[in-house]
Amino acid sequence: MTVLLQQILDGLTAGVLYAAIALSLVLVYRTSKLVNFAQGELATFGAFLTWQFHDWGLPLSVALPASVAVSFVAGALMERTLIRPLLESSNHLGLFIVCLGVLVTLLQVEAWIWGYQVKEMPNVAEGPPIALGPTMISRQNVVIIAACVLIAVALWFLFQRTRFGLAMRAASDNTPSANLLGLPVTATLTFSWGIAAVIGTLMASLVAPNQFLQPGMLLPVLLYSVAAATLGGLDSPVGAIVGGLVVGVVENLAGTYVPGIGQDFKQAVAFAIIMIVLLARPQGLFGSRTVVRV
């Protein structure tokens, strides 16, 4: 029983990361109707910036906000220069290719600047693990969970309690009507990409001590996060959180207890979740169903 509880706790801890990255995917999808497959590498690049600033002598309390600020600008510039022209021309294939191109380019740039040797990112929280009954959790993982909760609360407040958040919701629900009402649709697009990059950088920097900072660090995590967003619904922030936690627990339990899967084939669980959801409920558990009028 102790092993089972520990596996569930580890799965929830991993699921928090999947949920946070899934939230950034949902944020972009709601405004752009695009799954940004470069999100994981954008986050990894941000983590490299955090490491670099710290390596130059800045304390982590300064290095992390600095990399977050740079990431916001990078995400906003990506939307403005690469994504928006293709969105305006409805070039969906071009958007997909651009995202893959950014992913590959960032991989090569990271390898060129920092190499493939693993960088050691310091923990935000040091000290012995915390006992939760018969299970244990590291202090760094507690910080990661707290960060995800704060991100979720901040996004809820943004969408539900601010004028700009309401404009973002209106623009994502009905862009033509939002334009007619004079809402800042283009600004919401740029802001959503910037915030998505911020979420990715923050989470990547916090998990880097556990994940080993190197090019492609979050590629497997991106797969799980896409599965989480698909499960919960690509337009549902709540679904992203629930989906991330479910995927984290399921893949961890499957890797431990299902014969033939083990730790080496856990990624197949994410593919299985994506395929099952797309076949059984394409809009996800919490996503809105698309209605086509004829």
UniProtKB/TrEMBL annotation:
GO biological process terms held by the UniProt record: amino acid transport
GO molecular function terms listed in the Swiss-Prot or TrEMBL record: transmembrane transporter activity
InterPro entries from the UniProt entry: ABC_transp_permease, BCAA_transport_permease
The keyword Transport is annotated on this UniProt entry: yes
Keywords of this entry: Amino-acid transport, Cell membrane, Membrane, Transmembrane, Transmembrane helix, Transport
GO cellular component terms listed in the entry, alphabetical order: plasma membrane
Matching Pfam families: BPD_transp_2
Name of the protein this chain belongs to: Branched-chain amino acid transport system permease protein
